[in-house]
Amino acid sequence: MKHTSRKWSLRVIVIGYLALLVGLPVGYLFIKAFSHGVGAFWSEVTKPNALAALKLSAEVALIAVPVNTVIGIGAALLLAKRKFFGSRALTLAFDIPVAVSPIIIGVALILAYSRIGWFGAWLSRNGITILFSPVGIVMATMAVSLPYVLRSVLPVMIEVGKEQEQAARTLGAGAFRTFWQITLPAIRWGVLYGVTLTIARTLGEFGAVLVVSGDITGKTQTLPIYIFAVWDQSYDTIGAFAGALVLASISIVALIILSSLRARERKLHVDLA
Amino acid sequence: MSISLSRLTKRYGPNTVVDDVNVEIPEGSLTAILGPSGSGKSTLLKLIAGLEVPDEGRVIIEGDDVTDVDPRYRDIGFCFQHYAPFRHMNVAKNIGFGLRVRKQTKDVINVKVRELLELVKLDDKADAYPAQLSGGERQRMALARALAIEPRVLLLDEPFGALDAIVRTELRHFVKELHQKIKVTTVLVTHDQDEAMEVADQLLIMHSGKIEQSGQPTDLYERPATEFVHSFLGPTTLFKGVAVRPHDLELVSPSLASTEGTVTSIMELGFEIHVTVTLSDGSAPWVQMSRNEFRALDIAVGSAVSMRERVPQ
User: Fold this and answer.
1) Nearest residue in chain B measured CA to CA from A177
2) What domains appear along chain B, each with residue ranges and CATH number?
3) For residues B20-45, average pLDDT
4) Neighbour count for residue A48 (Cβ, 10 Å)
């Protein structure tokens, strides 16, 4: 009896906590976004500046997510095999961008790439602009979403071990085939999880992007910055709520797809061993 | 000779794990590398496979010096201790992997995989995934996968190590039968002397990175060259300060021999019985005997007996 009551009180605490922090605000957001009807929601979402922001966010994600996925898997391959001089420093370097406040990433990028920085000065002499342009936004986004794939893949890779790869090698497989047919399928859940987190962070990043983007409406506004701008500057609550709902939905849908894929795979017994 | 190793040495930092090993493994033999854990036996196997690179020495397979050849091109079949199944492929796909790498046609692969499934008695498991197999079945799948490429040598790393006692015995017989059927030169690594004695026709006893002795199991058992081989290849007990086999001792009534003592423990292990006797000098050797011999003696803990070495008949 005591055991059951403890189990129930634990459940109530967890559910209550989640409701306060996630359920209530998101639910309220949903209600508010549609408070003037579906038509009002739709007209907010399809405003030119909102669409431009959505498009820019999608473009940034389309570049940042694949690049960080490839870099993350590559770094995991390097770090999983064996320890080498500087391997711990390398792991640490990957974590820095998420360990510090995004504002710091933004400010650091400005320092390095604006005309006051020596590298930025050289770039500007050669006619290359990074700050206040989509290039800067992509860089800031890639920085803040850097470690997710590595962090999701590395433990899986270590757990899987190198024996399957060695077995493939003794059977005659080269590095390319071994990676695509043995390594990648073995770590696929780590990769998908990492990619999902990367997408979520990429679409959602606000601070670092705000600093380097220059916040030019219709040009360098990503979706989160657009939402903040309409909220902060024009008190357009419906517009902000509608944008926020679109942003939240994308990430939530990505998480749902991932977890349902995983559940289906579990049913096939393929992943258990 | 199928495999020749000359002056083979492997070091990890300050530790020499394989130390100047010279070995000839005959064509078609089933050789067991036997040694305690940490003796370097698994490393030796991986050096043959090319999964480890030697610091010194040469590896020669069927006359070809393969020391600098990538494992991809050595034509060896390697079975890992934990089988290393490709978990995302079913049994048939696992077995056919090496054939797909070798760009065989679909028909050839299908026929070959069928044959191998039959050989390792997994006919009904072609579509199962490794996670759905028992330990013994996984091991047989790994064997079939390694054999599919028709290797020049088959290397098995602790092949029965991770299995329970009954499956172990079954699989030992299976490997022995399989070897009689296909005659491929096979080298297996084990720390279990019973397993090695039962399965292998050649033994290499390894200790601290060196080969202590090699030869046929019975020769090694009867004529161990070193104290280590003697104690490792079967039970020993100290009788009058000398290590002897417990089955080379016998118990008789006190009047028949001078070394008297008292029975202090009796361990019944099915057919065989171990009787420990504490002698007057304080030493406590044990004697191995059959159940019938034990019955005829009619002894219990506390009985007074004498001990002597068995006279060969």
Assistant:
1) B101
2) 3-231 (3.40.50.300), 246-309 (2.40.50.140)
3) 94
4) 9
